[in-house]
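Notes from the 1:1 (GR / supervisor)

We went over the backlog. Supervisor wanted to see one worked example end to end before approving the batch request, so GR pasted a single chain during the call. The sequence is below; no edits were made to it. Supervisor asked that the structure be written out right there so they could see what the output format looks like.
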Amino acid sequence: MHILWGSLMIAAGLWMLVCASLKSQFVIYRLIVARSKMLWGDNVYRFHQISGVLVIVFGILVALGIV
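Structure output shown during the call:
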């Protein structure tokens, strides 16, 4: 079960990292950016890249059963 949840977290982090790097116009990502832009301003994409990497790392730890 840890592998399933870890894999889903890795996929979500990878999606966020890729969308932020490409500044995607995907509808769901635009909604996330609109909410985050209120707090982070022009640094919203950098914030999403860092958040995506952290989610990927945490997903790896979950998949390995460390967390």
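Supervisor's comment: The radius of gyration is 13 Å.
Batch request approved.
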